[in-house]
Amino acid sequence: MTASRHGWEPDRLLPGYEARTLRGWLPQAPATVTRAVAAGGRDPVLTLVRPVQAPDAPRGVVVHLHGYNDYFFAPHLADAFRDAGWAFLALDARRAGRSWRPGDVPHYQGDLREQASDLTRAVAAARRTWPGLPVVVHGHSTGGLVTALWAHAHRGRGRPDAVVLDSPFLSVERSWVRPLQDGALRPLARRVPLAVVASAPSRYAARLAERWDFDTSLKRPDGVPVRAGWLAAVRAGQLRVARGLALGIPVLVARSSRSGADVADGTDLDGVDTVLDVATIAALAPRLGADVREVVVEGGVHDLALSLDAPRAAYLTAVTDFLGTVRR
């Protein structure tokens, strides 16, 4: 497909890629939170990103959703899927990455249905472009939490054929953010949704910047402040997962073998998850559905696709093997 057709233009960040910006939907609630973050009342946007060259006869399409303080910048991920015969479409969700606009609060959503609605648009675009093919959503961290909740909500019409969750943010327990108690957080989020409840540099992002090429204004080593409204939305989603979801599709949950502290003098920053507690991921993963498969990557970091060579290869092999089992 040519880069200028149907709103697609050459991507400004990755050579050999094209991007399309779409207007985002706003959920009905909570309206006060939505207004609080919309710069001058402007509607949010989302951005779809894809390689110019796709497989001639793809077996299916993978839709990728990033995490917090993140955006799509990893062409090797798309390359791995292409080599396995799958087309690829990445989503930079509202107020993140290519979709951030001056005045936006970076990565903020006061209701996880905001980002979920962006995912709905991305999956619909994938189905229009590659009709009749299986669609698998690959969600990382907070994007993994949103993906799980979205797939549960779409277990009837519009559901994906499978999901892959890369270190999903299923709980705040022993995670990168130290939350208020829910009883104190919820009223604070209603009153002052943009109140900062946690803020710290990300040694994890700083370490990745030493090995990977990305825009540090879009994935910030100095971190992105955690705001009350965002954290309350995340906690509501995590509590829903804890009660149990009913994903009637194959689910692959991948995590590192170990967790560690996100500190500057950490001795193993390149071989553990310094963002989330992997034991909590393991405990909560079975609550996602009836067909949950687990991959444990020895030496993996929080984003398994950005690990060192051997664990990254192990992760990508596990995912592409899983894709080989997916049927429409």
UniProtKB/TrEMBL annotation:
InterPro entries noted in UniProt: AB_hydrolase_fold (IPR029058), Hydrolase_4 (IPR022742), MAG_DAG_Lipase (IPR051044)
Gene3D superfamilies assigned to the protein according to its UniProt record, in alphabetical order: alpha/beta hydrolase (3.40.50.1820)
Serine aminopeptidase S33 domain mapped to chain residues: 57-211
Protein origin, superkingdom: Bacteria
Alphabetized PANTHER family for the sequence: PHOSPHOLIPASE-RELATED
Name by which UniProt lists this protein: Lysophospholipase
Organism: Cellulomonas dongxiuzhuiae
